């Protein structure tokens, strides 16, 4: 189980690093978005949603996962981001939910593996 934990942690870290670096350095042209997802993205842009902050957090979490340092904290920071990614794709773009689902399920797996560190958060 320890090897599976390391594999999932490194794969999530690589995914987060790739996505955030590609975003900041504009490595790839943005894909053409249509329909409700396009309307949603335009609404986010018009609202002043801080995508740079989200991608910055993804970058920091990716570094944490790759290095193996602060993984428990990175899990907590990443959880609402991964939930948001899954819900957006589930409702607006179900065909492209793969990477988001992997991120969310991997995040849950790592929280499960480090559950002893989180138990105190749920005590009254």
Automatic annotation (TrEMBL):
Keywords tagged on the record: Membrane, Transmembrane, Transmembrane helix
Localization annotation: Membrane
InterPro entries for this protein: DoxX (IPR032808)
Membrane-crossing residue ranges in chain numbering: 7-25, 45-66, 73-91, 97-115
Membrane topology per record: Multi-pass membrane protein
KW Nucleus (keyword) present: no
Identification of the protein by name: DoxX family protein
Organism the protein comes from: Flavobacterium saliperosum S13
Taxonomic classification: Bacteria, Pseudomonadati, Bacteroidota, Flavobacteriia, Flavobacteriales
């Amino acid at each position: 189980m320890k090897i599976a934990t390391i594999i999932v942690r490194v794969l999530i870290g690589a995914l987060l690093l790739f996505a955030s670096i590609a975003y900041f350095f504009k490595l790839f042209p943005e894909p053409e978005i249509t329909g409700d997802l396009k309307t949603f993205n335009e609404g986010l842009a018009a609202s002043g949603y801080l995508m740079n902050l989200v991608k910055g957090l993804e970058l920091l979490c990716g570094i944490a996962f790759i290095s193996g340092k602060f993984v428990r904290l990175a899990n907590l920071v990443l959880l609402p981001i991964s939930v948001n990614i899954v819900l957006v794709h589930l409702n607006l773009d179900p065909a492209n939910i793969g990477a988001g689902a992997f991120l969310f399920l991997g995040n849950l797996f790592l929280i499960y593996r480090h559950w002893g560190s989180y138990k105190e958060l749920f005590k009254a």
